[in-house]
């Protein structure tokens, strides 16, 4: 499929395929805001499908068994459940209209109507939700996981992801789009200590209105998985008939998982594996292609367009190429499966950053039920990030590329990990400590508003907990 040199013709081609190529620009992501999704799911009552939102789900790895997955795709507005799958665990991907996806009560109502038709009890811990401006592009997908009996030799975490940003300068069927969606899932599994490529299994989620585009997408998927020696199971397209990219994925590890949020202690240190940010360059570059007047505005504010272009190229490369070294480093600091945890030798907890940027710290504080004190805010291209925030071009200039994650551990463990990470071109930095247990909150000693445009979201992140208010 060829593209003309005219940017808006490119955009028109995407839209004719039922895709929103510009929707992601303000948030650096096309996903439903995690706070909105959590609130919407919390309001759902009396359904047999229980969704407890998490960034991963975990299953035992049974000796000699491989994951078996049964996929079902439904209309979001009117799902027809003629024959339910009798399995109790599932991963999920949703695509919801922006009218509902940006407002928790409406999203809750849409998901309530979807779930209420199911009768079999199913537990969903990992769910991705993408936004669309096309009502007929909505869907709900459940990937049911069959659990086997046998000897437990490790864990097999499962994740879902959707392609969060779009390179509009490339054709709708270009490999970069499916590569970004798959790499995002691999990144999450690497963070859980799954660093051996041969242990991964991908279950791509994709769709398009023509067989020609579907064939190209399948060829792209084959090329990607062959390049990295990854197993893939093709469940065919979603058959909604609208362009879409995402994936479910699983991988095995013979280590304990580094997600001991309940064992995070006061005094433990917080490290990020790379600087925050990086994604705003994609947004600024795309805005410049939309209107050349933006380039003039950039230059007038001391932000060079060649610099933005270089940062954007780096971001696209980063988002579409997995780095398994992260998984191997994390695994090195996890106890063997079944062995006891030692806080002086092992990672206590990890958490992804991704497009959430600093707001990932709020999610970590909730999981750890702790007050986090953040005294450093290392951000890529800080002048570019401040400009994007000041001009309200990007909601959150700390939205981060792959390779940026939070690690919580003792100082001694982080000292060792820092050396390992630096050997593989990461740039780890200590950014804070766990100040107090018992209530979730986040305090910054450096003003985060220089990088976050939304005062309401920032206020929610930095608001003291009810317990602190009572004792303050």
Entry summary:
By secondary structure, the protein is an alpha+beta fold. The chain folds into 2 domains: 7-251, no CATH class; 261-471, Phosphoribosyl-aminoimidazole Synthetase, Chain A, domain 2.
Structural account:
33% of the residues lie in helices and 22% in strands. It is globular, with a radius of gyration of 22 Å. It is of the alpha+beta class. The strands form four sheets. It has a six-stranded mixed sheet with strand order 13-15-12-16-14-17, with helices on both faces. The longest helix has 17 residues. It has two domains: 245 residues, no CATH class; 211 residues, PurM-like C-terminal domain (Phosphoribosyl-aminoimidazole Synthetase, Chain A, domain 2). Helix 5 packs parallel to helix 10 and helix 7 crosses helix 9.
Please tag this protein with its features.
about 475 residues, Phosphoribosyl-aminoimidazole Synthetase, Chain A, domain 2, 6-stranded mixed β-sheet, 5-stranded mixed β-sheet, 15 helices, disordered C terminus
User: How far apart lie the N and C ends?
Assistant: 62 Å
- What global shape is seen? globular
Strand order in the sheet with the most strands: 13-15-12-16-14-17
Structural class: alpha+beta
Overall pLDDT level: 94
Radius of gyration, rounded? Answer: 22 Å
The profile of the biggest β sheet is: 6 strands, mixed
Percentage of residues in strands: 15-25%
The DSSP helix count reads 15
Number of domains: 2
Give the tally of β-strands.
Answer: 17
| Unreliable parts | 466-472
- In which range does the helix fraction lie? 25-40%
